[in-house]
């Protein structure tokens, strides 16, 4: 008989860890989704850049779901996992977890590799 682990855990590797401080709040004192998306984009870009061996840019964000709010003082951990790699694109699964191990949000980021002139290039393998 095998045991089933019902405790949710992040998928992928830790790409970024940051505290949500009062400096990040909106006029109502809440951590806005835009700040969180910016952190996720940075984590996706770091991961895609390692895969592409260079500069990348976000071209799409797919299926983003916000599951619970981020509170001031929380430390969020952003995990990334490389998905499909195309000719010039890389799909990155991004998950955000708070310090109480609640999944805050998740999304799929589509990144493209760029050359030094900012033009799309093939992903270098």
UniProtKB/TrEMBL annotation:
Residues 10-117 form the HotDog ACOT-type domain. GO terms for cellular component: cytosol. Keywords: Hydrolase. One of its GO terms (molecular function) is long-chain fatty acyl-CoA hydrolase activity. The keyword Hydrolase applies. It holds the Pfam family 4HBT. It comes from the Bacteria. Gene3D superfamilies: Hotdog Thioesterase. The keyword Signal does not apply. PANTHER family: ACYL COENZYME A THIOESTER HYDROLASE (PTHR11049), ACYL-COA THIOESTER HYDROLASE YCIA (PTHR11049:SF5). Belongs to the acyl coenzyme A hydrolase family. This is HotDog ACOT-type domain-containing protein. It comes from Halomonas huangheensis.
